[in-house]
Amino acid sequence: MSKILDTINFNADGLIAAIAQQHDTGEVLMMAWMNAESVTETLATGQVCYYSRSRQKLWRKGETSGQQQKLVEMRLDCDGDTLLLLVDQKGVACHTGRRNCFFLAARNGEWVEIAKPEVSPEELYKR
């Protein structure tokens, strides 16, 4: 594991950007942050774990929503500062209830919603 971690260029906060992509369709699902501990856990368990900057702790994708990501493959970019996670996404990836987090498109000088929620956030998080 140390060979893997030593190759990653974590930023000054000890984090690396991680892009989650559906392994079989190529759909870009989300971007989040990982630290050494979350990278290690993800590789050890096969379940994607991120680092939540707002909560300052590990964030196991799907721990509250059930919308888990199973790791298929982890890739490192040429600069060593971005991870690409090829995943098998169970359900929706976005906390807004959409399949992915990229549901706003810049069109004609404004943001246009191009995808509706598949499930309400209240239902997703049982609020």
Automatic annotation (TrEMBL):
- EC number(s) for this protein? 3.5.4.19
Positions of Zn(2+) binding = 78, 94, 101
InterPro entries named among the record's database cross-references: PRA-CH (IPR026660), PRib_AMP_CycHydrolase_dom (IPR002496), PRib_AMP_CycHydrolase_sf (IPR038019)
Catalytic reactions on record = 1-(5-phospho-beta-D-ribosyl)-5'-AMP + H2O = 1-(5-phospho-beta-D-ribosyl)-5-[(5-phospho-beta-D-ribosylamino)methylideneamino]imidazole-4-carboxamide; 1-(5-phospho-beta-D-ribosyl)-ATP + H2O = 1-(5-phospho-beta-D-ribosyl)-5'-AMP + diphosphate + H(+)
Q: Which UniProt keywords apply?
A: Amino-acid biosynthesis, Cytoplasm, Histidine biosynthesis, Hydrolase, Magnesium, Metal-binding, Zinc
- Give the pathway listed in the UniProt entry for this protein: Amino-acid biosynthesis; L-histidine biosynthesis; L-histidine from 5-phospho-alpha-D-ribose 1-diphosphate: step 3/9; Amino-acid biosynthesis; L-histidine biosynthesis; L-histidine from 5-phospho-alpha-D-ribose 1-diphosphate: step 2/9
Is Cytoplasm set as a keyword in this record? yes
Question: Could you give a single Gene Ontology term from the biological process aspect?
Answer: L-histidine biosynthetic process
Sequence positions that bind Mg(2+)? 77, 79, 81
- Enumerate the subcellular locations listed in this protein's record, separating them with semicolons: Cytoplasm
Q: Which GO terms describe its molecular function?
A: magnesium ion binding; phosphoribosyl-AMP cyclohydrolase activity; phosphoribosyl-ATP diphosphatase activity; zinc ion binding
- Cofactor, how bound (note): Binds 1 zinc ion per subunit. Binds 1 Mg(2+) ion per subunit.
Ranges for the Phosphoribosyl-AMP cyclohydrolase domain?
30-103
Cofactor(s) required for function per UniProt = Zn(2+); Mg(2+)
Q: Name one GO cellular component term.
A: cytoplasm
Q: Name one Pfam family in it.
A: PRA-CH
Summary of the function given for this chain in its UniProt record: Catalyzes the hydrolysis of the adenine ring of phosphoribosyl-AMP.
| Name of the protein this chain belongs to | Phosphoribosyl-AMP cyclohydrolase
* Organism in which the protein naturally occurs: Acidocella aromatica
Q: Supply the gene name.
A: hisI
